[in-house]
Amino acid sequence: MGTGNFETTIGLEVHVEMQTNSKLLSPSPVHYGDEPNENTNVIDFGYPGVLPVANKGALEYGMRVALALNATVSPFIRWDRKNYFYPDNPKAYQTTQSQTPIGTNGYLDVTLDDGTVKRVRIKEMHVEEDAGKNTHGSDGYSYVDLNRQGTPLIEIVSEPDIASPEEAYAYLEQLRQAVLFTGVSEAKMQEGQMRADVNISIRPYGSDTYGTKVEMKNINSFNYVRNALIFEEKRQAEVLRAGGEIRQETRRYDEPTKSTILMRVKEGADDYRYFPEPDLSPVVIDQTWIDEVAASLPKSAGERRDHYVNDLGIEPYDAEVLTQTLAMANFYDDTIAAGADAKRAANYLIGDVNAYMNKHQVELQDTELTPEHLAGMVKLIEDGTISTKQAKQVFEAIMTGEEPEAFAKAHGLVQLSDPDVLLAWITEVLDNNPQSIEDFKGGKDRATGYLIGQLMKMSKGQANPGVLNKLLLAELNKR
Amino acid sequence: MAETTITRDEVAHVAGLAKLAFNDTELDQFTTQLSDILNIFDTLSEVNTDNVEPTYSVTETVNHLRDDVANNWGQKQELLENAPLAAAGLIKVPAILDGEGE
């Protein structure tokens, strides 16, 4: 990959907010969308002398991500201070793990568009704090909300193994899914729960040194990342072809023009004057603790897909849809565990349930549907108690929390499979339609279709079509 | 005066990182003072620290951690009253430009 005679080198630093109950260093709630500064206290405001204590849950979430990305969990962690002054960070430093990352030497196997698998190495992962949020007024002031300040982040730093904007996109999508299936974050892009810092350089093919890196920070859409990289790849190639030099600079992506714009030229490395955090106790992580966390790690999307396809006979595309979110995959697993037919349950989740969620703009966990109720309805269909047509009404009911069997009974939605009742109707219909019997004997298949239609009408749609068909054929052959 | 262990440029650089602006007189003054301070610390380099692990924490305590339980201390109003300026529940600060932060 690359542009003309150049090859592209991309590295990504991804930050994902972890949905713990409380912040990394303060017990303030981690909750998106509350009133400004509602979830803050003296620790979040960076008051002196507060002596914070680190959140064990945040460390365990970090360990989950490290394990899911095949990394080595560090046996010893001490915290570091990364110093910078900015109003969204009132302490004037970020608590991070620069020297002892929670995970090192991981990797993610990324499936590319052409089906090949590329291993992207992950250099390290840090548990650290998010900053607050600034909004810029038109009145010469900026406004700061510290609700987000101190939210635990997992920072995932890739090696520069990514060779094209498309690979970067695939990596981000599959990284998001890997993190999603650790259960530590819903990684909602629109809520800024996942953001990427991107660096890209190009060099002539065969060169053994990397080109000068250009950096873009805090991009919160995978499409923007791809577009920014496509633009940058081209821009840098044009500069080099014209005999120019790439400067080490920070640029930002501008969506309207799909281009990148210079923000500042960097002179030397950022100077954050890291030093060991004196106020937090170091953390020793032994194998027992790692094993405990590993045991709490949900099964990955890939493992689940393999199981669905190989053991349950689900189509690969459908397995893909079922593993779009952890909530959906868990729901599916629970529905199967409750005794539902795997294919029919999958079809309902992918079709009707997804359509319901889209129509009402809700998440699966916000509906009244339970795996037991979905399984109950699927079982009623499978054993012939209700028809798929009747199931439409039952479906509406279970989406509002009704128990399927009780609902079907209460609303007369029960299929007629009783041979005695069905035979009486069949006799009546056959007596009234001698021509159809002639047609049937003459080899016209259409004749049975007409008779079934008559019988369904008589049963007001409640006859079990399978049973009805069998009985009708037997009767026809007798005449 | 002893040889300065920190240069005037370094002092200016660190001051810049801390968003502090010093005039020439102040820069000279701080360069001298900081050099003196660093010279005193230099005494430590007389001690042989080969094979001595750095001290990251002065206590022996490890794994002093808090369970992940949320507790809102309800300090919003007091904290905002303590901010130099606040409006609509937000801290009001002189205009800042995007991208200056981390």
Automatic annotation (TrEMBL), chain A:
It catalyses: L-aspartyl-tRNA(Asn) + L-glutamine + ATP + H2O = L-asparaginyl-tRNA(Asn) + L-glutamate + ADP + phosphate + 2 H(+); L-glutamyl-tRNA(Gln) + L-glutamine + ATP + H2O = L-glutaminyl-tRNA(Gln) + L-glutamate + ADP + phosphate + H(+). Residues 330-476 form the Asn/Gln amidotransferase domain. InterPro entries: Asn/Gln-tRNA_amidoTrfase_suB/E, Asn/Gln-tRNA_Trfase_suB/E_cat, Asn/Gln_amidotransferase, Asn/Gln_tRNA_amidoTrase-B-like, GatB, GatB_Yqey_C_2, Gln-tRNA_amidoTrfase_suB_CS, Gln_synth/guanido_kin_cat_dom. It is an enzyme of class 6 (ligase). Its EC number is 6.3.5.-. Keywords: ATP-binding, Ligase, Nucleotide-binding, Protein biosynthesis, Transferase. SMART domains: GatB_Yqey. GO terms for molecular function: ATP binding; glutaminyl-tRNA synthase (glutamine-hydrolyzing) activity; transferase activity. GO terms for biological process: glutaminyl-tRNAGln biosynthesis via transamidation; translation. Gene3D superfamilies: 1.10.10.410. Allows the formation of correctly charged Asn-tRNA(Asn) or Gln-tRNA(Gln) through the transamidation of misacylated Asp-tRNA(Asn) or Glu-tRNA(Gln) in organisms which lack either or both of asparaginyl-tRNA or glutaminyl-tRNA synthetases. The reaction takes place in the presence of glutamine and ATP through an activated phospho-Asp-tRNA(Asn) or phospho-Glu-tRNA(Gln). Heterotrimer of A, B and C subunits. NCBIfam families: gatB, PRK05477.1-1, PRK05477.1-2, PRK05477.1-4. Belongs to the GatB/GatE family. GatB subfamily. This is Aspartyl/glutamyl-tRNA(Asn/Gln) amidotransferase subunit B. It comes from Leuconostoc pseudomesenteroides.
UniProtKB/TrEMBL annotation, chain B:
Pfam families: GatC. It catalyses: L-aspartyl-tRNA(Asn) + L-glutamine + ATP + H2O = L-asparaginyl-tRNA(Asn) + L-glutamate + ADP + phosphate + 2 H(+); L-glutamyl-tRNA(Gln) + L-glutamine + ATP + H2O = L-glutaminyl-tRNA(Gln) + L-glutamate + ADP + phosphate + H(+). Its EC number is 6.3.5.-. Keywords: ATP-binding, Ligase, Nucleotide-binding, Protein biosynthesis, Transferase. Heterotrimer of A, B and C subunits. PANTHER family: GLUTAMYL-TRNA(GLN) AMIDOTRANSFERASE SUBUNIT C, MITOCHONDRIAL (PTHR15004). Belongs to the GatC family. This is Aspartyl/glutamyl-tRNA(Asn/Gln) amidotransferase subunit C. It comes from Leuconostoc pseudomesenteroides. The lineage of its organism: Bacteria, Bacillati, Bacillota, Bacilli, Lactobacillales. The gene is gatC.
